[in-house]
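Need tokens for this chain, all 116 residues.
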Amino acid sequence: QVQLVESGGGLVQAGGSLRLSCAASGSTFSIIRMGWYRQAPGKQRELVAVITNIGSTSYLDSVKGRFTISGDNAKKTVSLQMNSLKPEDTAIYYCNARSRSYIDHWGQGTQVTVSS
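Here are the structure tokens for all 116 residues:
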């Protein structure tokens, strides 16, 4: 089993920045990818950014150029630097870790609120 602990998030004005961090523990040897998803009220959860254990990254189109994901494969940590935040970025952000068996593990979620 994999446990994920998130930190960061909060309230920020439009145009501001926030940083999210996540650390994995437990059966971390099985993790092949870590990243962030988000879910806004009334909407489906969506992938924001992910990074594989070989450093490949993928981003949601609407955050490209504003968000940057980074990770430490040895420590099994992942961070998301969010710049130029917009009100539409408001959501609960969830840390995700995917194992070799394609099982997804989730953090408890952290609220990000961007005021206009």
